[in-house]
Design a protein that fits this description.
Strands 1-2 form a two-stranded parallel sheet. Helix 3 (68-76) links the parallel strand 1 and strand 2 (83-88). The protein contains five helices and two strands; from the N terminus they run ααβαβαα. By secondary structure, it is mostly helical. The protein has helices at 2-12, 18-39, 68-76, 95-98, 100-115; strands at 55-60, 83-88. The longest helix has 22 residues, at 18-39. The termini are far apart.
């Protein structure tokens, strides 16, 4: 389902050419080949850092590219004035594009109160 959604999204994106879509597939393949073996052996707890700004992660609940458990573990290793994690049901890695309304709702709920 994710692949079909992503391909459909790319096919109807006004600025995408067939070359762009081909490059996207090639990039996914290279990433899977080179990055997945590297990231799968990393200890997310050792990747933490210190941030002077709030850190928010909003992602699709069905994200298989960056599983929510991995994202949560990473987020828990950070130090920041405010840290929050939110998921969007029924969405995968491209939740910001495929579930724009839900993403904006999460963003507004978490970031807007800091601005006021």
């Amino acid at each position: 389902m994710f692949l079909a959604s992503a391909v459909g999204f790319a096919l109807f994106a006004p600025a995408y050419s067939l070359g762009d879509i081909n490059d996207w597939f090639e990039g996914q393949s290279v990433s899977a080949e080179h990055l997945v073996p590297q990231t799968s052996v990393l200890d997310p707890k050792l990747l933490g850092g210190e941030f002077a700004l709030p850190v928010f992660v909003i992602q699709g609940a069905e994200d298989f590219t960056t599983p929510t458990s991995l994202a949560k573990t990473y987020l828990n290793s950070l130090h920041a004035p405010r840290i929050a994690f939110g998921t969007i049901g029924g969405a995968g890695h491209f939740a910001v594009f495929t579930k724009q309304d839900a993403f904006l709702k999460e963003l507004r709920a978490r970031v807007l109160p800091l601005i006021r």
